[in-house]
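Internal ticket #5521
Category: modeling
Description: The requester needs a full-assembly model to guide mutagenesis choices. All entity lines are attached below as received. Residue total reported by intake: 619.
Assigned to: D.W.
Attached entities:
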Amino acid sequence: MIKRKIEKNKLVEVLKKAKQQGFEHLSCLSVVDWPEKKKFELNYLIWSYKKKKLLSIKTFIERDKPQIKSVVELWGANAEAHEREAHELFGIDFEGNKNLTPLFLKDWKGKPPFRKDFDWRKFVNKKYFGDKNA
Amino acid sequence: MHETKTYRFPIGPAHPAMANFGIDIEIEGEKVINAKSDPGYLHRGFEKLMEYRTYLQNTILVGRVCVFEPFSYELAYNIAVDKIAGLDVPERGSYIRVMMSELMRISSHLVWMSKMCRATGLDTVLKLAITYRDYILELFEESTGGRVYPVYIRPGGVRWDLPDRFNEHLEKALKKLEDGLLKIDGLMFKNDIFISRTRNVGILKKNTAIKLGATGPVLKACGFKYDIRKDNPYEVYKELDFDVPVYNGCDSYSRSLVRRNEIEESIKIIRQLVKNMPSGNHINKISPFASLPQGEVYSRIEGARGEIGFHIISTGSDMPYRVKIRSPSFTHFIPVLEDILTGSQIADVPVIYWSLDPCADMDR
Amino acid sequence: MFLTGVLKGIQVTIENLFKRALTIRYPHQKIEAAERFRGEHSFDISKCKSCGLCERICPSRAIEMIEIKGKKYPKIDMGKCSFCGLCTEICPFGALKLTKNFSLASGNKKDFIKKPRKLKK
């Protein structure tokens, strides 16, 4: 696995170059929440069919203002779906992605549930057990 | 009277031809002009659940991501944990892991066969395929103790060694499967009804498939030879001799043929594994409450539906800090399905849908 | 064009008409479960040393240690249990085991919560 850490404003540029060099398959977009560092970590995992190598592009964005450029122009609907998921579960805004509609959670109004500070135990107790233990 | 040209309606999630998943379809006459996937009915939040369980407890959980191929998810997860922990898998353990995941691939493809036949109206194969799957489930019960959720693969190897008379029973089941495949061939793959129902239906071109992240049989049916078992081999696949079935049709029929031939290849692989099975230890155990070193790992394997990946981040505690599951159905059922359905006929929707082999792993 | 396909289907149906059925009449006939089958728990209260490892390892949090005469024993909620068998594997004294019993259905919700004494030996 080739690992690269880049600045967030260079993301689209770097990924475009990587795609031209044969890294065509956007395998996964994985988001990690780091509340202590006040950062979100974004991992773009890309596979090259020709070179048979995996490329991991890592970038950090501010947790208070989670915004980053979208890569929809490179991978179309595939990137759109991955970004929708990240938007829904972590609350990250992807500039340029016009379809950030809810994917799994239709009527969700609270905090994005996959963030580390989302208290799921409290939520479950309140929602399903009538706030007995919350 | 209203004069409407287009009409919107949902198919699923409660629909006999759907699997806990809905599509919002806009039609003009008989033609689908717009399709929107509507997943989320089986969203169980596995990635979050796994952050609150130890590495060993998670092995029980991961299989539940997809009912039809729990072994593939167990394997992908455990390869990732092995890498983080720096564990060596004994050769026998590795052989058993591969053998079980190949059996799972056959079982998963048989379930797909039965569902595909339900979509095309060939109910005989529905029952035949499920029957043949049961021979494999019996093998699972014998070796792992569970028919559907085996919970067998562990960090460092497999849970138990194979039972005494397993090879004998395995050979018997494989023989039955080979006979059954010939029977199903006549009823399904060489049947004019099936061919006319699937050929040139649901075209997905190679370039679109790569761009939209299609993997597994869907990509192989576009004439693109790519298999993680060959191109990025894990476990013992490097030593095995097998072919990757590739078809150029780009349609539902090609996708069906790829899956059918993958069953044959899997049988071939299992026979080789039985022949060369080394003796010795089957697991290098770690403590159930062990804290693993810091690290980040992305492991990928070829499941029955396509690429399965686990991105695990460990901060040095006994539980993973973050787990991201890359599931094949996520890309197959949101971007790819929407792309294929646009422009197809309304009657072809179930056929296209099942030709991509849906599973609950799209929601996770 | 489709006639061969239809005829082939009918041929298979007729062939299977005269074969023995693969299914069995379940409540009257039973298939013996495999040796490793993971079913309902058995619990030997005399072997239990109240270490609480089973409670700690249970991934579904189905086991709770309750007090009986000053010692703690596992109470198992079968509704939560996923029959993974981790508790039996970790038990150092062999007090907890999984049996072949798979018919656990009941009309009463309370039957699913198995107190230590209610579990068979």
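Resolution: model delivered.
Comment from assignee: The helical segments of chain A are 11-20, 72-75, 77-90, 120-128.
Ticket closed.
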